[in-house]
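Lay summary. Proteins are chains of building blocks that fold into shapes, and those shapes determine what they do. In this project we predict the shape from the chain. Here is one chain we studied, written as its sequence of building blocks.
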Amino acid sequence: MNLKDNFQTIKDELVEISRELYNNPEIGHEEFASSKLLTEHLEKHGFQVETGLVNQPTSFRAEFESDKPGPTIAYMAEYDALPGIGHGCGHNLIAAMSTGAGILLKDAVNELGGKVVVLGTPAEETNGAKVPMAAEGVFNDIDIAMMVHPDGASEESGPTLALDALQFEFTGKTSHAAASPEDGINALDGVIQLFNGINALRGHLPSDVRMHGIIPQGGQAANVITDYAVAQFYFRAKTRETLNEVIKKIRHVADGAASMTGATVEISNYELSNDNLVPNQALSKQFTKNFETISGETVKPAGEAAGSSDMGNVSKVVPSIHPFVGMNDESLVAHTTRFADQTQTKDGLKALENGVVSLAQTGMDILSDPQLFKAIQDEFKQQ
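And here is the predicted shape, written in a compact code that computers can read:
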């Protein structure tokens, strides 16, 4: 089965998917047209589609199953855009690549057995749907999970950072800031002391920990003591275990900030937490081998963990990879309009082809090579 030749039969369709998503970006949890576009194409190719998984209206599961037993391979489709930027993270390409890989692998499933699944996973940029999907059993019947992400250069699947997104709501008491300041309790002072405490804590944490925050609400008028103020932070670390210990300390800092100022504080998650991604090395090596053969490129080794992804939660329940496919411009910076525009160039379209064929080839290798499948599963069990 020549997957490169097979790709040519669906190339125009996948290019149109990427272009349609690029021209009509939808932010997380609002990707109704994007989800519909992908499911219509998958249904046209014989996939059975279920929508609205785990109370996520724009999510979907599209599957094609043969009459023969075999592994179940899933490709993750992301299709949420960034406010004001569009597809500055290339999710239009991710959606097209995973859809295309599923369609290409369908013929191999018919011949070799098993099942191929394309999962539509909304809102990766914020409240990632893969988190409840992993927690609520969507991956229970899946053996392998794969996706590829566009970037400036091609890179092996590497780790990501665990993430907790915490909101701190400080409540105080209003008063006239000049006439009767002694009667007020300044909630903004609580937020400021929170920032000071977190900054003081930085020198006593592991070097992989990252903490960055904003003040989305800090008061309405300078002559009124603020009775309500809010801080939002991202806290990250290489492992979930490290991050859990950090969060314990952060909660003490927040309580101290409230105590110092007389305010009260409520702490909550304003986005779902991400676990650190643990790539399956046996699966990653097979994908890298295929990608280098198909693309003619040299794939860079995985870099240090920097960002976070809800794919981390998936990697804790099923063998997973999240490599990067290059768009021939190492100066690209994600989350920019320039990055989005690159997906529509000849280099972006070449990345689309390389990603689709490499994903499908890796899936076909797993279906046809029981030893490879066993090696992947054995590594995951030891994880």
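What the prediction tells us: The two ends are 34 Å apart (CA to CA).
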